[in-house]
């Protein structure tokens, strides 16, 4: 097993919680491209910051590395039947039920809806005073993901309110660190989560039952329609509980992530006015989306919302880069460190969309979506949402920073988001 810090596990946990990116950088500077982090209650975590190692992890056979097991932190939210927590055949079957809902074609089909909703959202944002955009971005991406799941006609407003309340828990450590759930400062958050979860489950099951009774509702082609038309390995229709867990998986994976990517994008634009000017010119002149695309690629490089891919649990010994890992080890391809390696990206801490103006990202060293069988199926939708929101915002608004310094990253469940909740000042253009 690669070496790592000798500090007690609690101290290592506190460091990575308090300053995730700086701690990862420091560990690489001390121990190189492969290092082990020990935190209480989980097997040693092996971070792999070398693209060749990361690729080997992504490409490993399904029965050798299990990413499903590595996602157990979110089980209370997504439910035990979630395909995100499954491995091998069960995982692939689960993805196949919803694959069509995530295709590039589906994202194109939703384009007009996404653009219209982004425009309405931006029109409601206050100007000329600091505003924290993260909560608004989460509500925006949640309403979009609910529409793609339930169709345009379903009444999901109350469900959205209940989901956002339920997911307040992801801002606390009780999801990532189960032992904290029953400790006094966090016990209240956990109880509130369980109460909200009951409300969310009841609404989800009611929507599923209503659609089963009237299959033509929803406008057709949405994710719920796909799930109701699918069958399990024995040819039986998917159960209510299974559909509920699949829907909740997509809700969770599909909105906090995109909201966080948008929060980083808006924050970076606030601190880099020359990038804003170039984007605004491109939008005004209507000459394609070359600079916008490069900017989004650079946001996802510089500020990947997943600092590492979902941990892969070793199920059979595997050798990678000269190290042999044994059953039970956890391997984490470290997206952040690969994206911040000066051997791949000169001056990696500089935000510079020009890196991607003349060439598309190289998948060996640009991996905001993870990789292999687990690679994010929602990436087309995410890109469409980010582009629509930035276009709607920059068309009417100038973004200014609300403070002198760019915010650092802080955890929100298993992803990171700007510490200041994307606080900016918006000015009418
Ligand atoms: C900028 C936004 C997003 C980012 C950066 C992102 C990134 C990721 C990453 C890194 C993974 C894990 C891959 C791995 O470990 O190899 C993942 C998984 C996943 N993502 Fe995304 N994602 C985003 C948006 C979305 C959206 C919009 C949806 C759906 C509407 C979505 C649905 C999923 C699902 C269902 C999984 C689990 C896949 C599986 O278990 O096989 N994501 N995403």
UniProtKB/TrEMBL annotation:
A Pfam family it matches: p450
Annotated residues for binding of heme: 376
UniProt keyword Repeat, yes or no: no
Taxonomy, superkingdom: Bacteria
Name of the protein in question: Cytochrome P450
One GO molecular-function entry: iron ion binding
PANTHER family hit by this protein: CYTOCHROME P450, CYTOCHROME P450 12A4, MITOCHONDRIAL-RELATED
Coiled coil spans: none
Keywords from the UniProt entry: Heme, Iron, Metal-binding, Monooxygenase, Oxidoreductase
Source organism per UniProt: Conexibacter woesei (strain DSM 14684 / CCUG 47730 / CIP 108061 / JCM 11494 / NBRC 100937 / ID131577)
UniProt-listed CDD domains: CYP110-like (cd11053)
